[in-house]
């Protein structure tokens, strides 16, 4: 991957968690980064972190479901960095009372809130980014944030999973529409990550209960995948969903339920050695 990427980047939901990791990772390799978020304190703190890295960053308070906010975001981003090469649609409601509720108790306001933030926000930001990239005439990259809920199901998160399935469908359709303009559209599908306010998945007592690689993901794992999709090395990749989950979606059952996993790896290696 290129050591330095002189790109102009917007990261929505970039103040904390995975978004912050993505913003800092781009800044470390020379990109200018505009952070859009509703958390002003965290957003300004992230910009200071970018400055500490010797990078160039700007925070714009943005509710991505608001057309006026998104238009102001792109206007300020243009004034700050002169254009846009990469949009990372990371903003979304992922946990807590806004997304976790049994289907029988899901009310229209909750449903609309998820759709507005997770889907309307992606649409508003992507369309303005794509129009700017078309005007610039040299292509660009849009990267959406999916979830395992796009292809598998969570209990008590019907609205959330519906938005993520729609995001993957939109990624493919946008990729086709924008390909003639050399604008690539891909998605990253994170697994279980060590971020602020993470809640345990089901009855997990340790990452090894759920994740084949035996650890939680860290923001850098998603950041590096995102940066790859935005880089020249991914210039022939569009309409793709890159899974970054330590093997969760590859498995039929979690490690804790598979009998073979109970045999310690050192015993397996010893048996292999005895028959080599």
TrEMBL record:
Care to name a GO molecular-function term for this sequence?
A: oxidoreductase activity
- Specify whether Oxidoreductase is a keyword of the entry: yes
Keyword rRNA-binding included in the entry's annotation: no
User: Do you know which Pfam families this protein is assigned to?
Assistant: adh_short_C2
Keywords recorded for this protein, A-Z: Oxidoreductase
Biological process GO terms, please? bile acid metabolic process
Per its record, how is this protein called by name? Short-chain dehydrogenase
Query: Which PANTHER family does the UniProt entry name for this protein?
Result: DEHYDROGENASES, SHORT CHAIN, ESTRADIOL 17-BETA-DEHYDROGENASE 8-RELATED
Task: Tell me the protein family, please.
Answer: Belongs to the short-chain dehydrogenases/reductases (SDR) family.
NCBIfam families in the record, alphabetically?
PRK07231.1
Signal sequence span per UniProt?
none
């Amino acid at each position: 991957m290129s050591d330095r990427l002189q790109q102009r980047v917007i990261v929505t939901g970039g103040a904390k968690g995975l978004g912050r990791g993505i913003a800092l990772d781009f800044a470390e390799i020379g990109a200018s980064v505009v952070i859009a978020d509703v958390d002003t304190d965290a957003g300004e703190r992230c910009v200071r972190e970018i400055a500490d890295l010797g990078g160039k960053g700007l925070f714009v308070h943005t509710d991505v479901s608001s057309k006026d906010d998104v238009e102001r975001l792109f206007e300020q981003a243009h004034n700050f960095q002169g254009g846009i090469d990469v949009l990372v649609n990371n903003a979304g409601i992922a946990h807590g009372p806004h997304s976790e509720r049994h289907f029988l108790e899901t009310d229209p306001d909750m449903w609309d809130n998820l759709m507005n933030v997770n889907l309307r926000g992606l649409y508003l930001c992507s369309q303005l980014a794509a129009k700017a990239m078309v005007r610039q005439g040299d292509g660009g990259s849009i990267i959406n944030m999916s979830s395992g809920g796009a292809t598998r199901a969570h209990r008590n998160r019907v609205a959330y999973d519906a938005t993520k399935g729609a995001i993957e469908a939109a990624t493919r359709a946008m990729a086709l529409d924008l390909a003639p303009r050399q604008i690539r559209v891909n998605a990253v599908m994170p697994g279980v990550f060590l971020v602020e306010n993470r809640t345990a998945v089901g009855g997990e007592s340790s990452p090894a209960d759920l994740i084949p690689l035996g650890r939680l993901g860290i923001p850098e794992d998603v950041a590096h995948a995102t940066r790859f999709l935005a880089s020249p090395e991914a210039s022939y990749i569009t309409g793709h969903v890159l899974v970054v989950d330590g093997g969760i979606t590859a498995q039929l059952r979690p490690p804790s339920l598979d009998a073979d996993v109970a045999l310690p790896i050192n015993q397996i290696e010893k048996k292999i050695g005895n028959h080599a």
